[in-house]
């Protein structure tokens, strides 16, 4: 299973469209917040795709969850924005929370900085900022591949 993970589109629906155009065969898209409206629009425009999203600190859309835990291809994936776990101050709270939930992968945003690292068996994936990144960085997203060989993560510049 190949999953595209993005975060922090901040109103830039065109960025999500460019990712979709670049990865037409991908069936699942996860948005880690600060772009719930764009993710909802993507879901409505492409009902053939699986689009899941959570609420970030800049999302005001009612009824959107702060986090979601799902099982995909036998792996448990936690999707959160990260602000409630203080990811700008460190990853310890997120690691602890994801571990308590039995997650194999924790996808988060908020920092606008792409990251893939492992803590024990837990993969931490921050796709960076797909829309209008700050500090002169490029827009990025992540591809998570789950197969019989395990979990592979790639950070991609848009």
Describe it.
Strand 5 (75-80), helix 3 (92-101) and strand 6 (105-107) form a beta-alpha-beta unit. The chain has one domain (2-157): 4-Layer Sandwich (Purple Acid Phosphatase, chain A, domain 2). It has 158 residues and is an alpha/beta fold. The chain is globular and about 35 Å long. The chain has helices at residues 13-22, 36-45, 92-101, and strands at residues 2-6, 28-31, 50-53, 67-72, 75-80, 105-107, 115-119, 122-126, 140-147, 150-157.
Which terms summarize this structure?
alpha/beta, single chain, globular, 10 strands, Purple Acid Phosphatase, chain A, domain 2, 5-stranded mixed β-sheet, 19% helix, 158 residues
The overall pLDDT average reads 94
Whole-number count of domains: 1
Helix content: 10-25%
Structure summary, number of beta strands: 10
List the helices and strands and how they pair.
Elements: E1 2-6, H1 13-22, E2 28-31, H2 36-45, E3 50-53, E4 67-72, E5 75-80, H3 92-101, E6 105-107, E7 115-119, E8 122-126, E9 140-147, E10 150-157
Parallel strand pairs: 1-2, 2-3, 5-6, 6-8
Antiparallel strand pairs: 1-9, 4-5, 7-8, 9-10
């Amino acid at each position: 299973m190949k999953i595209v993970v993005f975060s922090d589109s901040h109103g830039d629906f065109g960025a999500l469209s460019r990712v979709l155009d670049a990865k037409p065969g991908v069936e699942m898209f996860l948005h880690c917040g600060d772009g719930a409206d764009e993710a909802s629009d993507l879901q409505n425009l492409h009902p053939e795709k699986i689009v899941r999203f959570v609420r970030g600190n800049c999302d005001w859309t009612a009824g959107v969850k702060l986090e979601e835990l799902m099982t995909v291809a036998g792996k448990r994936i936690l999707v959160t924005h990260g602000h409630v776990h203080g990811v700008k101050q460190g990853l310890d709270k997120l690691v602890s929370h994801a571990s308590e939930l039995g997650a194999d992968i924790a996808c988060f945003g908020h920092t606008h900085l792409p990251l893939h690292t492992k803590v024990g068996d837990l993969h931490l994936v921050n796709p960076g900022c797909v829309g209008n990144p700050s500090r002169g960085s490029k827009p990025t997203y992540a591809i998570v591949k789950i197969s019989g060989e395990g979990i592979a993560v790639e950070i991609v510049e848009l």
